[in-house]
Specification:
The chain has 243 residues and is α/β, with parallel strands linked by helices. It has one domain (11-235): Alpha-Beta Complex (sialyltransferase cstii, chain A). 35% of the residues lie in helices and 18% in strands. A hairpin with a 5-residue loop joins strand 1 (4-5) and strand 2. The radius of gyration is 17 Å and the shape is globular. Residues 239-243 have low confidence and may be disordered.
Length: 243
């Protein structure tokens, strides 16, 4: 891999990205997250949640999808991946074992911001800059060609790329869509953006043998392999015993 030059002309070298990967793998292994199958849980309406997948996987919530998990009684996430500017009003009671926060402030300031939110409960905290996030996506998917959308793919795709980058053995995607508008935790019906970017990235990743989705619509539109409750254990040899 060559060095990656970001839009602000900052350069991230392969060596720097490799060192960052080692740090994150050590962090995730210490949390007993790295070597288990991952369920990446997004906030698209009407998520398809499979009981046997929930029992076996660690759950990775994206942005405020933990609000939907709360409504469904699923308990705290093992890891939440959150962008800096995501509204806290939508999910003021975030409870998660670990938080990967795309942020630019020093770690101590980030922790103080969390402490000041009286209903938020976060265990281990890890930081990643937007440039590092984008470099990881470029490494896993490749740069999005000019003319495909106007930006990077969404944080849901970034979470998939992060899991692949650190070496999660199996990744199952639920609650992600490239067609449904709005979020699963409210009735606002907010217009979905970055659809073309997500489509490009997910189609590029669809041939990977360890990447699945529980969402039939997402499978049909992107080529991701569909996983159903009945075929989970047969098709996922890396699955570990339920906790």
């Amino acid at each position: 891999m060559n060095e990656i030059r970001m839009s602000n002309n900052k350069v991230i070298t392969p060596e720097g990205l490799a060192r960052l990967r080692d740090q994150h793998r050590a962090w995730l292994r210490n949390l007993d997250i790295l070597d288990r199958p991952w369920l990446i849980f997004g906030s698209a309406p009407e998520p398809t949640v499979l009981e046997d997948v929930l029992r076996t996987c660690v759950r990775i919530d994206v942005n405020n999808s933990g609000r939907t998990a709360e409504l469904l009684g699923l308990g705290p996430a093992d890891l939440t991946i959150r962008k800096r500017r995501k509204s806290w009003v939508e999910h003021p009671r975030l409870h998660t074992r670990a938080l990967l926060w795309f942020h630019t402030a020093p770690w101590i300031i980030m922790r103080l911001q969390l402490v000041l939110k009286s209903q938020v409960r976060v265990g281990s905290l890890q930081k990643m800059t937007k440039d590092e996030r984008n470099a990881i996506m470029d490494q896993i998917v490749g740069p999005i060609p000019r003319g495909v959308g106007k930006s990077k793919a969404t944080n849901g795709v970034a979470a998939i790329c992060y899991g692949l980058w650190v070496g999660a053995p199996t990744i199952i995607v639920a609650g992600m869509s490239v067609s449904k508008m709005g979020h699963s935790y409210n009735d606002v019906g907010k217009t979905r953006k970055q659809i073309d970017e997500d489509m490009f990235a997910l189609r590029a990743l669809s041939t990977l043998p360890n990447l699945f989705t529980t969402e039939r619509e997402l499978s049909e539109r992107t080529g991701l392999r569909l996983m159903t409750s009945s075929d989970y254990f047969a098709s996922s040899p890396t699955a570990l015993p339920a906790r």
